[in-house]
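Re: the multi-chain job from yesterday

Posting the exact lines I submitted so nobody has to dig through the queue logs.
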Amino acid sequence: MENGDYTLSAEVVLRSRTGRSLSDENVAITSNNIEEFSPSDDTIKEATSRLQDMGFSVAATGVTLTIVGKLSLFEEVFSTKITLGKASANHNIIIRCEKDPIIPSSLRDIIEKIIFIPPPIYLR
Amino acid sequence: MAKKSKDAKKGTVPDVIYAEVSVKGHTDTPLFDSATRITSETVNDFNPGFENLYSAAHLLRTEGFKILQVSQVSGSVNIAGPPKLYEDVFKTKIIAKELPVIKEKREKTTATFLDSPDTSILGLIDTSRSPLKELADGLAILTPVYYLTDGSAGGSPSPNPPPKSYWHLDVPAGVSSGINAAQAHRSGFTGKGIKVVMTDTGHFLHPYFTNRGYRVNPTVLGPATENPLHDEVGHGTGESANIFAVAPDVEFTMVKQHFVNSVGAFNAAVELHPHVISCSWTTRAEDGPLSAAERLLEAAVANATRQGIIVVFAAGNGHRGFAGQHPDVISAGGVYMKQDGSLQATGYASGWASTLYPGRNAPDVCGLVGLPPKAAYIMLPLEPGDELDTEGAVGSFPDGDETADNDGWAAFSGTSAAAPQIAAICALMKQASPNLTPNQARDILKKTAHDVTEGEGGNGNEAGPGPDLATGSGLADAYQATSAALQSK
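And the result, structure tokens for all chains:
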């Protein structure tokens, strides 16, 4: 399989209803203040629709959106170059962006950034 | 075309049916009606493009089916749903037939096959009268398969753990007894009616689970994961056995995150609206600041807790990671129970004062965890020949577990075992007191735990009288915690 055909997933940080940013503020986020960092329902709907139109599968299940698509789609939409690596033999796919993904102007009003999640460490 | 058997007896249609939807390829040759044999030379003709495949998956999801896998390799979408949904969407009737088969050990018996009377091929559903008529060739109901082994190793593993002479715990009895769950069971608290979700490497439906009648839902695929029937690592399958050892009647669901998007998988777990989420993994946070990905996990955990879901995270195996130190989680550490029943802190498990959240110590309480070097302590079921099955087979105890490399059993633990044990106690408490909040659950666990005064934790802190950084409040007690939850109603 070509790298471009590889299916990737990332989290999408939406603009919150209060203007507070999940990614910028240095304050602990807990059940007491999470509402202040949450997007509005309209923002979730609009972002889901626009990302689906671009070709991503979208799950709106949390404070962030989860998107799935081909590596080449991520590269095209977010103007970046992605390489894949393996941290070990056991399926740890590491995603490296040669430059930070750029949110296209058509999404900038509702989306702050996208973040690829590194592999977790299992504690057996 | 083969004629369907007319002498089949009637069987029972199950509550959930699994099927493979064949998506149309780039030629007009239908997969099911073609007289052309499907070989390595012709298979490409049947391969749909990416767009068709995902359009079909989207449409199926819209109709109400659960999407288990979208495979570009086979050009198909693996789905699950109740019989009535299939009947409504595909304008057909699903019937069950008992047909003769030969199972393992050459046993001649019958098995249930599902069929649609509208087609001439057994198990094939016609899609031409459904919204998928432009996208799908047909839909094959999945049939039973049998492993061609003698049942002693590989393929079909034993439902019971292999006996070993070194000191270790078995599931369910050893863990249940060690954490005092059996007494809670005798009082009627077994986790019945409580939903527990785990996000991990996946789940293999080992005979250990099926023979005991545990309620295991089909695995939910997290973002960009595949193979819902398999757990290539074995970690999720094995550690989930800790849940059933403590709360045998819970309704369990695995969200397979594998090594892909743990935040997306965690959010998918929240979307299932469980009572408890158990996580046996960590990140590299140390003293911070949190990475962007950890920041999203922090928000995801906070969002789950705000919805009243009890979130249990493993503290770490010497790590000072995340989210085992998040203020909203119940942080699960490790205590080792010796053969004489005495307790000590284990150097395998984390215990530290968080610098990210001043005043927050991890762990809160402990489950049962082994000693260094490998914590080969709880004999757990997994998929035969997977990574942990193979790894554990190398060397003698304590460096290896002395099991075969394809027997579907391995001895391991870590705070990965402690988290599901504690999550299962939370399930018992939630059954006893349905309105129990996450904070109340943590308080009760801490108040009813057995203080541990010996040994040193994995971050160099010694256990002593009262709460400490090695074991938190000590080893959780399922019966005492459940009784206290009942009284708090």
